[in-house]
Amino acid sequence: MKPLLRRVALGSAAPLMALVFAIVASSIVLLIAGSNPLEAYGDMVNHASKLETMVDILNRATPLFISGIAAAIGFRMNLFNIGVEGQYLLAALVAAHVGGLIELPAPLHIAVILLVGMTIGATYSGVAGVLKVSRGISEVISTLMLNIVATSGLIVAGLKLWQAGGAVGGNVTRVGTEEIPKSGRIPDLNGFVEIFTRDIGRDRRLTGVLVVAIAVGIGYHVLLNRSRFGYDLRASGGNPFAAQAGGVPPKRMVLLAMVLSGAVAGLVGMTEIMSSGLFPANPIQNLGFAGIAVALLGRSTAFGAAVAALIFAFLDISSGILQNTGSASREIVQIMQGLIILAAVVAYQVTQRLRDREEAKAASIALSGATA
Amino acid sequence: MTVVSYLKNMPAWARWALYAFVGVGVLNIVQGFDDTSLLTAEGTTRAMLRWGVPILLAGLGGLFAERAGVVNIGLEGMMVLGTWFGAWGALQFGAWWGLLLGALGGAMGGLLHAIATVQFGVDHVISGVAINILGPGIARFLSSEIFNVKFKDQGGSITQSPRVPTVGRFTFPFLAGGDLFGWKTPDILGWFTRKDWFFVSDITGIVRGLVSTMSWVTVFTLALLPFIAWLLWRTRFGLRLRISGERPEAGEAQGVNIYFYKYVGVIVSGALAGLAGAFIASQELSGIYKEGQTTGRGFIGMAALIFGNWRPMGIFGGAMLFGYPFALKLQDLEGKASHALLLVTAIAMFAVMIWAILRKNRGDTLLAAVFGGLALLWYLTTETPPDWWAAVLPYVIVLVVLIFFTKRLRPPAADGQIYRKGEA
Question: What's the complex ipTM?
Fold first, then answer.
């Protein structure tokens, strides 16, 4: 029991250290800028305790979490799918377009949209996978390039091609693809939440994609820890040569991991197209890169990614209040997010080294005990 | 086959000059079909140089880091820091200070990357991604504290600065008629260009674009090229820096302080990326700091590094090649030149196909034929290609180069690997 406790303590010490470091460093920045950090943090926490803000945080955390899982699948295999950014935007565009074209009964319609998104995401990441397997091109470089090909090429082209005639509902801000009919939209969860609490005000809607995100999280956890495939994946990621000797074909694993990561990435944009009913001309960007941060902070586990996504969403959303109260610049949270990741990866590295050293010591003691 | 062996026996400079001549010839003929002269215009090469300089600086930044064995995905974030500090320095202290502070801002990002990767052994890609998130965050925070407060009445805000003063420009004397100690020299290349002789005037126009009215930063960057080549390949310092990226354990055995060289490489890398950012914020390209203005040019710098096979002159070639479509897009209002560029792409792909046939590589031949055929088909079926085509072209070139030439590229042997002292 004691070593387990130690492991848990060591495991959670690192992210906690990172958080503390980020908070201290940001406080220093705020102090230099002439703001009172305690007041700023107090405002943020206060703001976050409101029901409406919590809904906003969950809405933000949902795509962050899915994006984090997409990145995590790659990390487990020692692959850097930097291309989640391009994959999710492209997937959301095509899924919204297809969803707006067809008429189907509700569950089927939703399923088609999700499937199209996953297929497009998987295909686009599959390109990087094939390039790596067949030509030995690093996925870091190819996905970086494919990102920009998607965001400033394919998506621009697609939007131009599929732009719905005129603005929807006479509202100029909602320019984008054809509107998805009601049957294709995942209903919001307001009714479910309101059973437990008061009514959610101010037009807030808790995204139904949250259910999809939870399903993805559970699916990822089970697949990784309870299936043959998950074992192979972790084995190949840990030591590809040993895994190959054990009968795990490395190339196939690379391709599978890449495709699976892209398929999950294809779901990242669903929160936006389900809430606005179309793929807008100016979609929410950078969720792919934020997902990498979520996966890193969450150590590529489903539970860790969920916590990390909530922390990042909290910082994103609750910082909005700083502008109103004027206690600090809300931009401080972007610095905090960057510092958290940097501090977290450093802390993980340090604890890993501590653990390795302890293991080596324990092994040498055991060995000397055996020989004596 | 004799042609191939003949080419192989040529000295490198003659071979590349020959390739350049052939390339200009192709551009010259192709643009005739589209009734445009933009592909070889003097203004295009001048714009190419202007757009190529930040890519070149970022690529050279990547060279310093990766030759020391540290992959630097964070170039983009360091470049963003450079744009902010460059604009702020220029506004606060003057144009030259802007460049210096831009480089220092980037170097700070480099220092952070070095501490994470060299000191703590964090994965290089992960640290780079973190810096790419941190860089824009710092720039935005500082803007909200400074541009939005002190420079508000001059048009500053959270997302942009007021107009930034800039350093002067330089024109080569004799070649392009620049001033020499107050004396206006003859403009030799300009004289040839105005004669409008077939091909000759094209060449002189292209060269004139590369030697006239360029920023002092451009002059500095071009001078940096031979300097860096000398520093990294002809000095003891360079040898030690490169061994840190090839066989750090071997260097350690020789008593080289590997950590020191890695630190220097990554910090210089950040400084060069920062200078690239300061250049982007200067009058040459935008004249203000604006959020999101780097538009992935740090990543193009990495692409130029790979395209150039981790060598200074190769990076220069890559930077110019990637700057070219941007420059063309800027002036090509009717889309004729972009259309002609499609045919150039097709011809280039067929050239790769012939190269693959000579090497008896059936897979590559087929692939190049398919790519070339698609480009040709596109050329024949459209009047003007969409305007995103030129924006995407540099990245497509990198992917194509990687697809066909990955096996011929040689990155530093220990590039991206985590080195720990005393573990060899």
Answer: 0.85
